[in-house]
Structures are given as structure tokens and as C-alpha cells.
């Protein structure tokens, strides 16, 4: 799985930093400055790169507020869904950045049925497998003071690396 990560037009510095953090935790990902690129042109660039998915980070009041996820099919973008955010903590705020991640998996251990549903949707929309073997980085869904938080940790460590992503909801295209 290869990801192209970018922003909506005219992003804030915080959103650009979040894109950099996101690219550091998603394996085989590349960030691209959006500029005035249209969705059609992004699709062509993603196809040339061999990307399977395009993630577009949008903002509200200068803070990342959603991630639109697209599949790349024949140099065209097909919307897969939207991850709506409550907020993020950047790796510069957690003081731990991660580099050269080759593999990422989602830990299945969750607290309740709602958390299980959110985790399943994350796996589906981003095509991230559940943990079964060794991985460079493990993502887990935890209950934070403001809802669900997606946190990243190196295997065997309790220290959080990369961004913390607070999830409001996940909308998948074609559902109800």
C-alpha cells in the first residue's frame, strides 16, 4: 500500500506539520505540496507515483479537521470516505518523532463495541492490517478525555511516537 498525502488549498502551518507527521507514521507514503493542483491532476500524480490511496487533510480555523481518503483507479480519484477529527497533537508536542516506518498495524485490543467499530472502519478506509506478526509501528485506539485517540507506539514500548489523532467519526462512501 502506497499513500500520497496532501492538503486542501492554502493550508495553515499546523496542517502542513500534521501532514508531515502523518507521512512519517504511514509506511510507503509521500507528502506533496498541493498548491493549485486539481483533484484530476492529483490523481494523475498519484498514478505516476504508484500510489494506491490519496489522503487530503482539510482544516477548520487553522487546525486539521478531516482527512478525505481516495482510492486511485486508472489515474482517477474515487472517494472512499472521510475521517472527521476532533483534533490532533503533533509529534513536536509529544516530543517524539518516528522515521523510516516500513510496516504499520492496528492493535485489535479495544475497550468496547463502539471502539471496535471505529477500529474496523479505520482498517477498511486506510487499508491498514490488524497486528498478527512483527511490525515497525503499532497503532492503537484508546479512549481519551475527548473521545477516541489513535496513538502510535514502537513494539514493546509504551512511549507514544508521532501524532495523536482524535477521531470524531468515520464516514465511508456508499454507507447508509
TrEMBL record:
InterPro entries: Brix, Brix_dom_Rbsml_bgen_prot. Keywords: Ribosome biogenesis. SUPFAM superfamilies: Class II aaRS ABD-related. One of its GO terms (molecular function) is rRNA binding. Residues 1-176 form the Brix domain. Probably involved in the biogenesis of the ribosome. This is Probable Brix domain-containing ribosomal biogenesis protein. It comes from Ignicoccus pacificus DSM 13166. The lineage of its organism: Archaea, Thermoproteota, Thermoprotei, Desulfurococcales, Desulfurococcaceae.
Amino acid at each position: 500500500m502506497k499513500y500520497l498525502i496532501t492538503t486542501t488549498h492554502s493550508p495553515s502551518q499546523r496542517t502542513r506539520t500534521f501532514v508531515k507527521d502523518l507521512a512519517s507514521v504511514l509506511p510507503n507514503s509521500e507528502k506533496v505540496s498541493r498548491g493549485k493542483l486539481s483533484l484530476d491532476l492529483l490523481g494523475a500524480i498519484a498514478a505516476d507515483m504508484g500510489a494506491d490511496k490519496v489522503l487530503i487533510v482539510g482544516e477548520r480555523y487553522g487546525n486539521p479537521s478531516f482527512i478525505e481518503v481516495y482510492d486511485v483507479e486508472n489515474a482517477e480519484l474515487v472517494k472512499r470516505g472521510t475521517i472527521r477529527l476532533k483534533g490532533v497533537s503533533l509529534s513536536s508536542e509529544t516530543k517524539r518523532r518516528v522515521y523510516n516506518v516500513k510496516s504499520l498495524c492496528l492493535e485489535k485490543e479495544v475497550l468496547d463495541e463502539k471502539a471496535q467499530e471505529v477500529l474496523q472502519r479505520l482498517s477498511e478506509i486506510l487499508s491498514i492490517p490488524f497486528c498478527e506478526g512483527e511490525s515497525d509501528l503499532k497503532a492503537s485506539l484508546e479512549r481519551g478525555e475527548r473521545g477516541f485517540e489513535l496513538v502510535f507506539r514502537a513494539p514493546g514500548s509504551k512511549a507514544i511516537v508521532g501524532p495523536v489523532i482524535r477521531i470524531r467519526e468515520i464516514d465511508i462512501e456508499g454507507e447508509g
